[in-house]
Amino acid sequence: MKEYLPYYRKLTLLGLPIIIGQLGQIVLGFADTLMIGHHSTEELAAAAFVNTMYTLVLITALGFSYGLTPVVGTLNGQGQTKKIGCVLKNAWLANGLVSLGMMAVMGVFYLNIGHMGQPEELLPLMRPYFLLQLVSLPFVLLFNAMKQFFDGIMSTQVSMWVMLVGNVANIVGNWLLIYGVGGLPEMGLMGAGVATLLSRAMMTLLLVAIFFGRPRYRDYCTGFAEGHINRSDFVQLNRLGFPLALQMGMETASFSLTSILVGWLGTSALAAHQVLLTISQLFYMVYYGMAAAVSVMVSHYLGQRDYHALLRTSQAGFHIIIFIAFCVAVPVFLFRWQLGELFTDSTEVSALVAACIIPMMFYQFGDGLQCNYANVLRGISHVRPMVTIAFVAYVVVSLPMAYVLAFMLDGGLVGIWWSFLFGLTTAGLLYYLAFRRQFGRISTNKV
Q1: Which residue range is the domain that position 359 belongs to?
Q2: Each residue of 1-41: pLDDT tens digit?
Q3: I need a surface site. Which of 205, 275, 299, 398 has the fewest CB within 10 A?
Q4: Count of domains in the chain?
């Protein structure tokens, strides 16, 4: 155990700011759901459908931006600061083009939202909220690129503070616009959408201003200014980014696309599902905060060809994630009956939330395993097998299992949440095996 202590320390110092920033996102999600839920149950259900559809898009976008991390981390390990700036310029272009593609795809979803079997009374609430989320996508993609740059050079505190400031602004905006405080119009769900759009734009502009305005990043800015859009960097970012986008997109689809199935169960199930997704993000975002630190450290050691440290970092990261899972799971389980009451006055919704907490607890080991080793594979730029693994785990295993358990076996919403156990555990085991095979190759200089 003593051998791991230096790695625990490094990962904690690097990952803690990322986790704090992610927790800020969780607080924001809780605040959104609380404020909307207490404004009306119908708006909570409408937000559930739109948010889960956009969660798929946002996580896919985040996955694409993750292609920048191993490139920056490896170059940082080699001390090539100006080259990092040039790569960042190409990342701006790559992420910008992806944002346009995503807007087009979500535009098609918007035009067909009335044909997805959702409750008819929710459609007038869903449509304007959907459009506000659509407009914010370019800001999300540029923010992701900047965040991966700062994380990749181990300046994780920058993104943390910007995210915290943006989240506070979003919560205040929600309070003012949802309820119509201080003479402002009471906009309900629309107010939440406007506040989210404005906060995303603000966070993006803050990161850009810090990058160009702080002397600490002068060498990177010089590389950005002098560097050119070039085929080599652009292709590399897309070669790494698209498999990661597909992998994370399919993982999120096992949660987000089940919202269509949940919609078939009625408004109460859809509202409970939104509450459960908000709670589950508490685990997911904290895991990914630490796993992102694992990815950065792994890419750094890969650049230095320190394979022993690379292996120990991957193992230490998993130890920390499982410890975090235990610390978070205990209070969530103990207060499962009270959690639903925080978000809604509906006793039916609260009972569904409490019942689904049980399967949520069981899938945490598999979720921690897949989260850690997916990011280890990302750190060593071995991303191609991740697409196939994600397809098997989430499309072949998880989604069909959700339908079987919910409808064929009459498990309802609880059955859908049990299905996640099978998909996440399958993914975790396959990612781990893929890493062991690739590590054997790189540590013996076969790749």
Answers
A1: 2-442
A2: 678 899 999 999 888 888 887 676 666 666 777 777 777 77
A3: 205
A4: 1
